[in-house]
Amino acid sequence: MVVRTSTAEWHGRVEDGGGCVSLGSGAFEGPYSFGSRFKEEPGTNPEELLGAAHASCFSMALSLLLTEAGFTPTRIKTAAKVTIERAGNGFAITHIALVTEGEGPGLDSKSFIAHAKTAKATCPISKALTGVEISLTASLVEKTGTAAPRRSAALRAAQQAGRTS
Hints:
Number of strands: 6
Strand order of the largest sheet: 1-2-3
Structural class: alpha+beta
CATH class of the largest domain: Alpha Beta
CATH superfamily of the largest domain: K homology (KH) domain
């Protein structure tokens, strides 16, 4: 059994206070505040961290499923857009949009999408979030000669939306 630990420390009132969140591995430590969560102020927020956890977990699950099916994925890139809204007297995470693209020799779009759907249902973070609606857009990257692969339109749109929201 593996146990991972992260910590958060908060000081002050929610509207004008602030805190610091850190990963037990030491890979990340950063500030968070009301402004970084509900406005566009610097710092991180729980939803951004949850999105990173979900995107990375999903990508690893998809890689495992593709490998077990005999494919060798060369790249899987996933964006997770986490929506938080007012709900009753508080807030709730109401939706996570996963947008993934991948590539690998011999991999066809139909197989990639089928395995992506299975990964969405079986990755541990998805399982932990059973009360949240999770949508998935999956696409196989088209190779263009010897140039770098083109990102899918869906991933470009998700990344653009993430920069502006």
